[in-house]
Amino acid sequence: MQWPISVCGQHCKNLPNPMNLTIHGLWPQICSNPWTSLPCPFPNGYTTIRDQSLIERLKVSWPDVIWERDERFWACEWNKHGGCSEQLYNQNAYFNLSVNLKDQFDIFGQLQRAGITPSKYYNMRRINRAIKLYTKKQPELICNVPPGTQPNWNYLWGTWSCTPGIRSCIPGQTN
């Protein structure tokens, strides 16, 4: 998940709903270290999504907030990460699962229920606790903090955690 305002900085022309988190990706191939970029063992490339309902859901939940090239962004994420789940999920199922997980684990709503709202300063431990209480998983928070400023909601770039029910498709890897 990513906070569009922090990802964009001054680069975005048309910011998507700034009052929600958006999907950056679903990385099933390596839950123990999502920043490791492993080659997918199932390298079938992205194919254009034809399901209009799915496209509309992706445009809201998984937009390319910087370049506004949604299809290109989805292709990149499928080719780099999603294809790794191909034995469990075909391309449409992968994207549907991503949007469904975002909706199921309404991180933005949970933060609001915990009294954490945009444009105020919060201790990162407080944000961590609120997410962990809800998801039962320890999140990893990434901040984009300009020099000379304090980390706060506006600079929260993203969060990830290993999600129950998602299995790794790399032999020997588990979450």
UniProtKB/TrEMBL annotation:
Protein name per the record: Uncharacterized protein
